């Protein structure tokens, strides 16, 4: 799998990861969890590493922690989660619970979810980073309406990661956040890279355009992921799934050719004419 450097350290990060919203919020049943274990097996076997969660994702942190422990796979995973509460004490308590649920003493990335009380949590994250409890810190949001607020923090504060929404159908991040991340040396994790919930169903059954062969795409998911990855400011994408066959499809987008500038322009034009 292709990797890209995390600007603040130069460490290589695989470009395809896995989001856990909804998909990993399951019970303890063997049927549900065995499918998720297979999802992670496929990700790691392909060279992927990033598994992104949050305390607001129901049981997802517990499920990730259980699966990584059962698989003896903590060493393969770049585990990211978030703090999503108000106040210093509540933030510390929530982050400690996340560590416990994820079966970790140390996390690769802690993010301030949707900028909730970020002025309070950011100093705590800096303390945890200095103590070695986290390797990186970041901020997140998932709507274009929050881009100005994200940009303000990116300009004012030294952070390692920003997580944001970006896809072929939602390119607002190209205007402000992606250029700013490149300028400021901030790694970018893209959520919602396959667009809103109606995009993939709308494409189902439509034939792939001829140019998809030029970048070795055999599915619409690969087309959409490769479009996002073709932006040089993007470090990693985290499409969420609970289906092993979808993870097989997703990781294929992490290798081979990516669209060049001319093909990106054609993809945008074709999408605009749909």
Secondary structure elements and their pairing?
Layout: E1 3-5, E2 12-14, E3 18-19, H1 30-45, E4 50-52, H2 60-70, E5 78-83, H3 88-101, E6 107-112, H4 118-130, E7 134-140, H5 147-156, E8 161-165, H6 177-184, E9 187-191, H7 199-203, H8 220-229, E10 236-237, H9 244-252, H10 261-272
Parallel strand pairs: 3-4, 4-5, 5-6, 6-7, 7-8, 8-9, 9-10
Antiparallel strand pairs: 1-2
Give a verbal description of the structure.
- There is one protein chain.
- Helix 1 runs parallel beside helix 9.
- The protein has 274 residues and is α/β, with parallel strands linked by helices.
- It contains ten helices and ten strands.
- The longest helix is centred in the first third of the chain and has 16 residues.
- Helices cover 39% and strands 15% of the residues.
- The two termini are 31 Å apart.
- A hairpin with a 6-residue loop joins strand 1 and strand 2.
- The model has no long low-confidence stretch (mean pLDDT 96).
């Amino acid at each position: 799998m292709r990797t890209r450097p995390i600007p603040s350290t130069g460490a290589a990060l695989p470009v395809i990861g896995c989001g856990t919203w909804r998909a990993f919020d399951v019970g303890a049943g063997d049927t549900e969890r065995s499918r998720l274990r297979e999802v992670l097996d496929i990700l790691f076997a392909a060279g992927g590493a990033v598994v992104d969660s949050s305390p607001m994702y129901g049981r997802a942190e517990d499920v990730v922690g259980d699966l990584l422990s059962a698989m003896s796979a903590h060493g393969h995973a770049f585990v990211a989660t978030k703090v999503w509460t108000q106040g210093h004490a509540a933030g510390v308590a929530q982050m400690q619970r996340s560590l416990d649920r994820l079966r970790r003493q140390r996390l690769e990335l802690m993010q301030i979810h949707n900028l909730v009380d970020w002025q309070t949590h950011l100093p705590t994250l800096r303390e945890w980073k200095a103590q070695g409890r986290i390797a990186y810190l970041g901020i997140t949001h998932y709507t274009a309406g929050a881009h100005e607020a994200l940009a303000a923090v990116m300009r004012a504060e030294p952070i390692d990661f920003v997580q944001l929404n970006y896809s072929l159908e939602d390119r607002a991040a190209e205007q402000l956040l992606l250029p700013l991340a490149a300028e400021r040396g901030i790694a970018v994790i893209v959520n919602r890279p396959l667009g809103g919930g109606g995009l993939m169903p709308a494409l189902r059954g439509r034939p792939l355009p001829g140019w998809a062969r030029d970048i070795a795409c055999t599915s619409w998911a690969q087309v959409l992921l490769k479009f996002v990855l073709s932006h040089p400011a993007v470090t990693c994408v985290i499409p969420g799934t609970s289906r092993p066959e979808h993870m097989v499809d997703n990781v294929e987008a992490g290798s081979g050719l990516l669209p060049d500038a001319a093909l990106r322009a054609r993809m945008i034009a074709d999408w605009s004419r749909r």
